[in-house]
């Protein structure tokens, strides 16, 4: 590999918005066989909005939003932005907040422990079941539940838009004979909605960060070269594990730090150009 060809390709890609932060990234990208995508903030734009609030208690919708906002002030997840925006001005603060990536968060508000996250996270943490969670999830929205150890207070339904160029990128990857998978911590209907919209046929939902890691390791053990594309704190371990990793520029700091490349452009299909460019460079230099 002549250093000049690689330097030229690297700078062309950087100018287009695909920043190469690790020297070997292009060579590994050219060899990747399996492209694995996170959902929220990766295939979707990460500009979530609260669509509906279901209140299961005597608290008002705006009270519930305040408790949720007190917790979300401690999170970088795109869901946090959506809830904080909907809550407006914050009237409560939370202490000792613990984030569980891929699940939710909990912390103390006015002397009581509050939980916010997936229905299964709430069930594990509080032993309360969110009885109509299946009905809430059926529409394919992301569902976030607010509860204390004693009671379920509300559920927030959130929706996101697809990222520009997502369907084109997936079509390109399949056309070149690559394997493509979607891994998400979100529930099955939400995962399927996005997968169908962008054309991905292999989908794994309800995954914790460790499950994502196990999936990637299993692929590698069977000889695949994995390219991982993600944005969140929950994706940092898989980004580090993959042979080549791409973080979204708008994603979390820890994801960017774990990645070999950073996509600064809003256009996801730029990644397709990156793969072509990487392969061409390797052909030239050989
Ligand atoms: P993805 O893998 O699609 O990027 P995550 O693994 O980050 O999604 O999150 C999975 C699910 O965990 C979300 O759909 C949400 O229900 C819940 N969750 C994660 N982080 C938060 C948060 N900060 N606030 C509320 N819910 C959260
Ligand atoms: Mg994500």
TrEMBL record:
The organism's place on the tree of life at top rank: Bacteria
Annotated GO biological process: copper ion homeostasis
GO molecular function, one term: P-type divalent copper transporter activity
Localization of this protein: Cell membrane
Name the record gives this protein: Cation transporter
Main location per the UniProt record: membrane
A single GO cellular-component term on record: plasma membrane
Species of the source: Thioflexithrix psekupsensis
Residues of the full protein shown: 477 to 762 of 829
Taxonomic placement: Bacteria, Pseudomonadati, Pseudomonadota, Gammaproteobacteria, Thiotrichales
Protein keywords: ATP-binding, Cell membrane, Ion transport, Magnesium, Membrane, Metal-binding, Nucleotide-binding, Phosphoprotein, Translocase, Transmembrane, Transmembrane helix, Transport
Family: Belongs to the cation transport ATPase (P-type) (TC 3.A.3) family. Type IB subfamily.
């Amino acid at each position: 590999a002549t250093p000049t060809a690689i330097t030229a390709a690297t700078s062309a890609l950087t100018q287009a918005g695909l920043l190469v932060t690790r020297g070997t990234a292009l060579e590994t990208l050219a060899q990747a066989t399996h492209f694995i995508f996170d959902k929220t903030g990766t295939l979707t734009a990460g500009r979530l909005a609260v669509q509906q609030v279901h209140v299961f208690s005597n608290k008002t919708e705006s009270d519930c939003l305040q408790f949720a906002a007190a917790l979300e002030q401690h999170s970088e997840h795109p869901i946090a932005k959506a809830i904080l925006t909907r809550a407006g001005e914050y009237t409560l603060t939370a202490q000792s907040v613990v984030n569980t990536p891929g699940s939710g968060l909990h912390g103390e508000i006015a002397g009581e422990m509050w939980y916010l996250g997936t229905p299964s996270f709430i069930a594990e943490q509080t032993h309360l079941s969110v009885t109509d969670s299946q009905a809430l999830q059926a529409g394919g929205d992301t569902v976030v539940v607010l509860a204390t150890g004693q009671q379920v207070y509300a559920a927030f339904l959130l929706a996101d838009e697809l990222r520009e160029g997502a369907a084109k990128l997936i079509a390109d990857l399949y056309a070149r004979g690559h394997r493509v998978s979607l891994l998400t911590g979100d529930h099955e209907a939400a995962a399927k909605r996005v997968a169908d919209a962008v054309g991905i046929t292999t989908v794994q939902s309800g995954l914790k960060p460790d499950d994502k890691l196990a999936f990637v390791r299993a692929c590698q053990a069977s000889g695949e070269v994995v390219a991982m594309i993600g944005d969140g704190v929950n994706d940092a371990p898989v980004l580090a594990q993959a042979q080549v990793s791409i973080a979204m520029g708008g994603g979390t700091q820890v994801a960017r730090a774990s990645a070999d490349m950073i996509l600064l452009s809003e256009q996801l299909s730029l990644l397709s150009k990156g793969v072509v460019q990487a392969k061409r460079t390797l052909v030239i230099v050989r």
